[in-house]
Amino acid sequence: MSVASRTGQPAASGFMSQGRQFVGLAILLAFLSVFFLYPLVEILVLSVIDAEGSLSLQPLYKLLTNAGIQSILLQTAVTSVTVAFTCLVIAYPAAACLARLEGWKATLGNIIILFPFLTSSLVRTFVFIVLLGRNGMLNQFLVSIGVPGAPWKLLFNQTGVIIGMTYVLLPYMLLSLVGSMKRVDARLIDAARSLGAGRVTIFFTVYLPLTAPGVAAGLVITTILAFGYFVTPALMGGPAQVMIAQLVEQQVVIMFNLSQAAGLSIIMLVIVGVAYAVAARWLGIARLMRAG
Amino acid sequence: MAFQPSTGEPLGRSTRSAAVQLSGIHKTLGGTPVLAGVTMDIKAGEFVTLLGPSGSGKTSTLMAVAGFIIPDSGKITVGDRDVTNLPPGRDRDMGIVFQNYALFPHMTVAGNIAYPLRVRGMSKAHIKDRVDRALRLVRLEGLADRKPARLSGGQQQRVALARALVFEPSVLLMDEPMGALDVRLKQELKWEIRQLQREIGATVIYVTHDQNEAMLLSDRVALMQDGRIEQYASPEEIYRRPTSIFAARFLGDSNLIAGQFDESAGCMTVAASGKVIPAAWPSGSPCHGRCMALLRPEHARISAATELTTPHSPAQDLTTMGAVLEEAVFMGQSMRYRVHVPDLGCALDVQQVAGAGTTALSPGRQVNVSWDPRDLHLITTETAS
User: Which GO terms describe its cellular component (chain B) (predicted)?
Assistant: First the structure.
């Protein structure tokens, strides 16, 4: 996904005949069926088969009413939303600067955003453990300049999870914001100035409303991605920061309880699906797709 | 200057229109001079058009007045205030209609028009009152709640105009406001803009590359080329008495005949043929030898060469010459002819009203072409010392 290519128009028809288009579509559909729909149905079936091997909603009900799982779901939701908003606060001013770059500077800007994508999120998370540890670079610096309370505990707690996940998900937010900011016509800002508006007024009455689709898309994307995150909370969080994806992993790897893992997966899928549907309905799906 | 809310009166004749003066405006952008000493004065309530080809500096001049371009040197005053280095905004007190309008897409028509009032902290009731009157002024009463995307080009242009006028700025700037509209709509809106400006009495600076627009709208036209003003006068003055070849060519169609002016004899020698023809130097201008004679196509007449007329017919005091008709084109209200005149060593364009009695003239025919010597306007081509 590159910023430049997303502004392009869909390829002109006539490139492929109607018949060939159907063949292409069929191949894609077959791929989707084999590698996504089939396993999904399998998981769905697994999640609704009880201990006796008969079809029942009992296992899902049991999972949903379990107080421990409820609290993990809540923790996951709170963390995801917090991460999404932290991303927004950090990315908005950065994106506003990036959107104004032109030529080779814009290319360099995009490379800087996309660079973290080239490394696996596992490596990136370990990098942050090095930076944020008790004797890590940040704490050494804080102690050396005599900040009260230093060294801070920045790992294996909620702070660590938020910092780590924000870092990992920031590029998604940046890309969706830069996309919407590039579409803001600079002459509208000039017009607002000529009509007598000050900088702050222009920001709140013109710039922010015009970039709102990007903000909404960024929030939806980062929240959904954060909801299913596994590596970062596992490595940077403590026992209290267990997220739903970790629970699924536990059920598969440690408990060998595939049925419960499937049940949890289905619950996750439904929550994310409903959240997306609500967001799409409120914000308009077309706007989300366009800005994302 | 503080904003004075006047709520009782309709957006009527503005008492706040101000004179604008530009003196010696220079601006270089990226190594190229875009403005090379623009000097002009605009009276309060005057409609002035900056006319010129693209790249002539007309939009840059407007943007300097608007405050979006800060001149390298020179001074701009509005009324008695020096605004040269003032940023665009409330203190500058100018309404701008941008090219392609720059309407806020997320606001309704009423929201757009209310914007300048809202940022000035006017009360809701006053804003509503003013917006209603502005909508009436541009005849968009029923469309207050529409978004700009759902308006036609002409309607968008009117919203932009209402938004620029609603806060009663002392100067109204318009940057090719009709560039994106089709010909018929342009024709209609030209009359509307003219009428509106006369009604409001605002000082208007208008940029266009369309000479018809400039002719119809302006009290005075500043004809620009290469970042400088070639001629600054009424449209009629520029058309009848252009001071340069560029001005003669840019406004209207022209025939140009190179020659040498003889002051004592009151005639000029055509360079290409050596033929001497009567001509008068425009009064008040300094005399120079080498010159170009401008003859507008509609000032020349052609007739079938059935009888031989003397080259200089004293009865009618017309200059007449034999010519060969090369082309004849029917243009609707007139006929357009192209004739080759051996005595001038060049071709002339002739435009003649195509009435019922017009004899059909076909190409290749021998014709006579004639004109009143007073319609021959001389332009010096010798650089003034």
Answer: ATP-binding cassette (ABC) transporter complex
Choice among A92-106, B13-27, B141-155, B218-232 with the minimum mean pLDDT: B13-27
Residue B51 φ/ψ region, left for φ over 0, alpha for ψ in the -120 to 50 degree band, beta for the rest: beta
How many domains does chain A divide into?
1
Work out the minimum CA distance from B161 to partner chain A, whole angstroms.
12
* A190, A195, A209: residue with CB nearest B163: A195
Task: Please report, as a single letter, which amino acid is at residue A44.
Answer: L
Please count the residue pairs, one from chain A and one from chain B, whose beta carbons lie less than 8 angstroms apart. 56
User: Which pTM was predicted?
Assistant: 0.80
In a domain, B32, yes or no: yes
Please report how the helices A158-182 and A104-114 are oriented relative to each other, as an axis angle in degrees rounded to 10. Answer: 150
**pLDDT tens by residue, B185-194:** 888 888 888 8
Paired strand residues for B348:
B339
In a domain, B348, yes or no: yes
Q: DSSP for A123-157?
A: HHHHHHHHHHSTTSHHHHHHHHTT-TTPSP--SSS
B window 102-161, beta carbon within 8 A of A: 102-106, 115-116, 118-120
Indicate the pLDDT class of residue A291, thresholds 50, 70 and 90. very low
Residues B348 and B293 both lie in one domain: yes
What is residue B220's three-state secondary structure?
strand
Rounded Cα distance between A191 and A185, Å, is: 10
| Beta carbons of A196 and B116 less than 8 Å apart | yes
At A211, which CATH number?
Answer: 1.10.3720.10
In the predicted structure, residue B256 carries a pLDDT above the cut 80: yes
B160-184 tens-digit pLDDT:
999 999 998 989 999 999 887 888 8
User: What is the span of the domain harbouring residue B373?
Assistant: 253-309+316-380
The tens digit of pLDDT for each residue in B85-136 reads 999 988 888 999 999 999 999 999 999 999 999 999 999 999 999 999 999 9
Distance from CA of B294 to the nearest CA of A (A): 42
DSSP string, A196-220: T--HHHHIIIIIHHHHHHHHHHHHH
| CB–CB contact B92 A185 (8 Å) | no
- Tell me: do B225 and B260 sit in the same domain: no
Per the structure, the complete domain to which residue A56 belongs is given by 25-291
Look up the ipTM and state it: 0.81
Q: Which residues of B touch A193 (CB under 8 A)?
A: 87-89
Whether A5 maps to a domain, the answer reads no
Residues B102 and B217 grouped into a single domain: yes
